[in-house]
Amino acid sequence: MATDDDDILTGPVPAPDADATPSERARAKTFADLVDKTLAGRTPPAMSTDDRALLEVATVIRAASGKAELPAAKRRSLVEDALRQAVGGAGGTSSGGVVPIERARRRWVPWAVAGTSTLVAVAAVLLLWLRGAPTAPTVAMPEPTPVHQLSRPADPLIGPISREQVGDASTRIDTIYADRLDGYRERRLARGRKP
Amino acid sequence: MKYWALLIAVIGLTLSAGCFSCGNDKDAEVRVKPPEPSDVIGEDLMLALSKAKNFHHKARVYMSDGKVVEAIASVREILSLKFPAGAPEAEDVRNDARALLAKLLVGQNQIEEAMTVVTEGIAQSQRESFFVANLYTVKGEIHEARAAQLDDKDPAQKAKIVDEKRAAIEAYDKSNAINTVLQQKLMEDR
Description:
The complex is a heterodimer. By secondary structure, chain A is mainly α. Helix content of chain A is about 55%, strand content about 0%.
């Protein structure tokens, strides 16, 4: 037998202060049990359209209040998928074996560092090997300065001084000066200067 | 991040080692010291020689006019000329000036002063040369002059005369010995 309580959507709206009817109480208790089962993951396979609509509303209200939490594995999987899409990687679902992005990115870095270091070391060894053993120091010999450009004793130029020539120092200094002037001029001209 | 820091450190060390090796190769070249500026004929030496030459000419002019005192003063200027340190020409020029100065002093009867000039020149000489031999020759002449000043009729001075003449002979022998050695050396060098 149908009553007004059977059609809560089309029936008359009860007064705000009116007591709940037994029928309403029974319906509320049945719906509460249904919500509890749903939250516990034991959603009934079949239910009325009205109950499903109410159940969805209840689920949305609960989720909006922030009290709904996903399992840790599922939550991490969803975050990893979102980040992978954000960094340009292939999106898609992730299974329970999802590798964290940071760990996956770091996996090749040590190999790259080790490989580059090895290449540099090999290049250095090859460089030292190809240069060969150190050769003996090369001696950069400067051009020897001609003797007549050097300051030196005047003995070869003057020779022995006889007793008669002791006082002839003026002639000897002239000879020495002229000889040294030749060497001086030659040296200056060789260096590209004006004497 | 720490891996990249390690990589940069390894590359830096390798390049540093390479550069260090390059630097060692550059150091391997031994450079022989070029002649010191004092070894070659320079402006200082030519300036000193030029001044000495002019003082000698000046003294010759004075002597030609009989102005021996002025000539002595001009020759003395040569002894105070500044030559480059270690220049062999300096000793030769000064010894030659001392020889001339001593002869001029002897002519002025300043025999002891002449002897001082000569003995100082011999003592200050760093090597034997024809100019040192010349000083010994002048020294012999000074000894002769000393002997000539003594009275050979005075028995008390006779011994001194003998000593001075012996000293003169020794000085001439020394001069000859130096000349002989130097001439032989020059012949060998040629």
